[in-house]
Amino acid sequence: MHALELLNLPRELMIRESHIENIHRRLLDRIEILGAISSSSEGLARVFLSKEMDIASRLIQSWMNTAGLVSNIDPFQNVIGSWPSNTAKVPSIHIGSHYDTVIEAGKYDGVLGVLLSIGAIELLQAEGYAPKHHINALAFCDEEGVRFQTTFLGSSLLCGTFDDSALDKVDSDGMGMREALLARGFNPNNIAHLAPVIGMDDVFLEAHIEQGPVLEASGHPLGVVTAVAAQTRIGVTVTGKAGHAGTTPLDLRNDALACAAEMILAVERFALARPEVKATVGKLVVSPNTSNAIPGRADFSIDFRAPNLDRMRELKIDLLGEIESIAERRSIKIDIQNIQETSHANCDPQVTKLISAAVAANTGQATKLFSGAGHDAMKVAETCRIGMLFVRCKDGLSHHPDEFVEPSDIMEALRSMADIIKRVDQNAFAHM
Prior knowledge:
CATH architecture of the largest domain: 3-Layer(aba) Sandwich
Shape: globular
CATH class of the largest domain: Alpha Beta
Low-confidence stretches: none
Mean pLDDT: 92
Helix content: 25-40%
CATH superfamily of the largest domain: Zn peptidases
Number of helices: 12
Radius of gyration: 23 Å
């Protein structure tokens, strides 16, 4: 809003708009600051328990402190900022997202939700709002699962559902998670004894860029999420026999890469024939990986998603059956590992109604969306009620350096998030 427009507003509204403008500018600056904290110059890269995450966590904590929150960094580098209520202790409202990234990422995925949670609290405090319930801003450390192939580590820890076996995972450089924790100054032995932050009677709110084109196509800056798709990650190891590229006849080869290539194309055909499914091979490692040798081994990943858990499991059996048939026909050995499986998550109807009312009041339209992308909210949904807000992103692009959100859309999200928090605080616990 321009200065001349501000002068025409009542004093109370003028003060509020001034607060919003200041918080909005800080939020945009913080996006740029975090977007520069990267282990790579080729796009953004900030993975779990890295030095870059250490730097980012301390910055986020400082911004929470500036916002008047009582903050701490837990042994996984989750950042937690608390705004205590003077009138109640439980249940609590939690708002936030993740601040880790994929490799060659954009600067809005996850981080926007973290910064909106801080900004919305700042706005409510500036207005003199007194919450009925404790409100926590959360910055989750590992949603993407890039380093150890284990998604939602941060949110599972705060929910008390963390599986200790994940501590035995090893990254691609051979460093174990326990060793990585020690290197960052954390004691892995303390993990199992941490009390959950998120309880079963609480409500969790997550704002996130859409990561798709629906909002842009509809011309709406914000959307209300109704549910999140089930997803699984599968690892496939194809073992053939390495040999000389110039001397081994083609009909006598056990070419692991050729076999893997056929399997990868089969994954694509499978998904194309079933519009409800999303299937992606995003990682391929070949050995010995030289131009004059027949590949003896190929490892690839499958990211597989469907609207609900039962349907995903059913379709996964069919897909893996096709892969096994290819291996049998080629006389190639394969090993299939189920790395991770996450159920679909439905957003709570009451919370969704409150989010919709806030979005409609601020933008005039509350577009309902289904999320094909996974979010920390789906892990939190195993513990308590959830609600999600989507923010429009340019061309629906995400997990890419060109990821972009218009500043004006961020302003709309900031206004709406503050309103959502108030509505949830005042109405979501009436039955309790």
